[in-house]
């Protein structure tokens, strides 16, 4: 009876405790969950408020306090996975004994549905901006030292800028630099950098402003969101990625994760739809990867090619998909990820259903 109620109302609430030494304050969150990792907790210390949001399924457990004493800028976060314990170690500014941790702020010590938490932002510095195609750039943003945040595979963040006095917010999907770093493990650099591949639309509202930022300027970045789950990769054998234009962005981390972390994976195929050859993001990197890793294939399809283009042409179609989506074995476990302009994604999903792929075998990235 009791467990029935809990199942309906969500996970049982975590709790927290704290202790101190002369120089450190450790906050311990007991999540009562086993599948907790460093992606599950987002910690910020800004404007005198300390906030730690722990994601537990579709819920957030929030520690939110005005600390009783000052702390240094950086802190460390550890997760003891097998017991679901999170430890946040803060460095005191002065070696005094704290009588209390602080005073509670909004939502402190509550477990609330994630959708009700609102977007929480921190200011990130623009570190670099490099052209990738004629209209797409790779932006590198640095998180402040007083933030711990890792964007999980398949999730996006919101960027916020104030444009002529109004706050404008748009979603973007971080990529990893694994396609750029000669396919070695990228240097982790404490997960302080967020890379974004962004197409600049000259008549757009947000992207021209973003493009006008100078190195060293700030952009606000939200907590990650999105409904892709790593568990969708469980026992996966064939992974098909259908991307159009910047709909390629979620595929970057997915590709990296799949090729490194799915033991039984036999085949990963990317069908990448663009208007022209000049629009293809990271073409030579993708071709090199296909050459190096026999499990990976890439096919480019152009909707407005020049007459010299010898490859595939047109929009997403039954003929293209039925030829592309061949299982490596008759009954192999497949996942198809699709992302691009809305008409592309909607048409793709219809065609996949027509080809008898089930809902569980399709993941679409939408707004
Ligand atoms: P907008 O002002 O939205 O305009 C976009 C284009 O449409 C312009 O060419 C504009 O001229 C035209 N337009 C605008 N209004 C009209 C109209 N009424 N009629 C006809 N044309 C019009 N983008 C990326 O580049 N990289 C990413 O990683 C990325 N991730 C995303 C993740 C998610 C979950 C979603 C939903 C979107 C993502 N996007 C991504 C798209 C991004 O959020 C923005 O939509 C995009 O950057 C355009 O923003 P903008 O304000 O510059 O352009
Ligand atoms: P684009 O205009 O360059 O088009 C790329 C390709 O999409 C075309 O070559 C064509 O094959 C296909 N396409 C375009 N319109 C189509 C239509 N009406 N029917 C069928 N196919 C069509 O694309 P872009 O400017 O790079 O736009 C990328 C889109 O992806 C944006 O709308 C963006 O919001 C979306 N996106 C979504 C996410 C997400 O997670 N939801 C992430 C990244 C990008």
List keywords for this structure.
39% strand; binds nicotinamide-adenine-dinucleotide; binds flavin-adenine dinucleotide; alpha+beta; Elongation Factor Tu (Ef-tu), domain 3; Rossmann fold; Immunoglobulin-like; 367 residues
Question: Topology of this structure?
Answer:
Elements: H1 2-9, E1 15-20, E2 24-30, E3 41-46, E4 49-56, E5 59-67, E6 71-80, E7 85-92, E8 102-104, E9 110-113, E10 121-131, E11 136-142, E12 147-148, E13 157-163, E14 166-172, E15 174-175, E16 193-199, H2 207-211, E17 218-222, E18 238-244, H3 249-261, E19 267-274, H4 283-292, E20 296-302, E21 312-313, H5 318-324, E22 334-339, H6 342-354, E23 362-364
Parallel strand pairs: 18-19, 18-22, 19-20, 20-21, 22-23
Antiparallel strand pairs: 1-2, 2-7, 3-4, 3-12, 4-5, 5-8, 5-9, 6-7, 10-11, 10-17, 11-16, 13-14, 13-17, 15-16
Bound molecules: flavin-adenine dinucleotide (FAD) and nicotinamide-adenine-dinucleotide (NAD).
Description:
This protein has three domains: 2-116, Immunoglobulin-like; 121-222, Elongation Factor Tu (Ef-tu), domain 3 (Beta Barrel), CATH 2.40.30.10; 230-364, 3-Layer(aba) Sandwich (Rossmann fold), CATH 3.40.50.80. The longest helix has 13 residues, at 249-261. A seven-stranded antiparallel beta sheet has the order 14-13-17-10-11-16-15. It has helices at residues 2-9, 207-211, 249-261, 283-292, 318-324, 342-354; strands at residues 15-20, 24-30, 41-46, 49-56, 59-67, 71-80, 85-92, 102-104, 110-113, 121-131, 136-142, 147-148, 157-163, 166-172, 174-175, 193-199, 218-222, 238-244, 267-274, 296-302, 312-313, 334-339, 362-364. The protein has 367 residues and is α+β, with helices and mostly antiparallel strands. Helix content is 15%, strand content 39%. Residues 1-7 have low confidence and may be disordered. Nicotinamide-adenine-dinucleotide (NAD) binds next to helix 3, strand 19 and helix 6. Residues 156, 170-173, 196-199, 201, 203-207, 246, 249, 367 line the site of flavin-adenine dinucleotide.
């Amino acid at each position: 009876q009791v467990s029935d109620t809990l199942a309906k109302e969500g996970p049982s609430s975590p709790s927290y405790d704290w202790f101190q030494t002369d120089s450190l304050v450790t906050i311990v969150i007991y999540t009562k969950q086993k599948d907790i990792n460093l992606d599950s907790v987002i910690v910020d210390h800004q404007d005198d408020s300390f906030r730690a949001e722990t994601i537990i399924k579709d819920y957030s457990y929030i520690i939110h306090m005005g600390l009783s004493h000052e702390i240094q800028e950086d802190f460390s976060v550890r997760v003891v996975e097998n017991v679901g314990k999170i430890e946040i170690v803060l460095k005191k500014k002065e070696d005094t004994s704290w009588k209390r941790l602080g005073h509670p702020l909004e939502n402190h010590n509550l477990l609330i549905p994630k959708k009700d938490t609102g977007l929480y932002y921190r200011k990130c510095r623009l570190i670099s901006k490099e052209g990738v195609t004629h209209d797409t750039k790779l932006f590198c943003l640095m998180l402040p030292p007083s933030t711990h945040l890792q964007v999980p595979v398949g999730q996006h963040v919101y960027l916020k800028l104030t444009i002529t006095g109004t706050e404008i917010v748009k979603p973007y999907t971080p990529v990893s630099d694994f396609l750029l770093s000669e396919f070695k493990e990228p240097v982790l650099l404490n997960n302080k950098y967020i890379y974004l591949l962004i197409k600049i639309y000259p008549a757009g509202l947000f992207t021209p402003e973003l493009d006008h930022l100078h190195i060293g300027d700030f952009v606000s970045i939200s907590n990650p969101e999105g409904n892709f789950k790593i568990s969708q990769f469980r026992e996966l054998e064939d992974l098909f990625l259908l991307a159009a234009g910047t709909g390629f962005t979620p595929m970057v981390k997915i590709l990296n994760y799949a090729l490194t972390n799915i033991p039984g994976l036999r085949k990963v195929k990317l069908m990448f739809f663009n208007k022209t050859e000049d629009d293809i993001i990271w073409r030579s990197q993708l071709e090199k990867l296909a050459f190096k890793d026999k499990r990976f294939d890439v096919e480019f399809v152009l909707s407005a090619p020049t007459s010299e283009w010898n490859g595939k042409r047109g929009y997403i179609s039954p003929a293209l998909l039925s030829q592309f989506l061949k299982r490596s074995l008759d009954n192999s476990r497949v996942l198809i990820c699709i992302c691009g302009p809305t008409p592309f994604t909607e048409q793709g999903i219809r065609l996949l259903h027509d080809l008898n792929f089930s809902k569980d075998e399709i993941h679409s990235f939408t707004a």
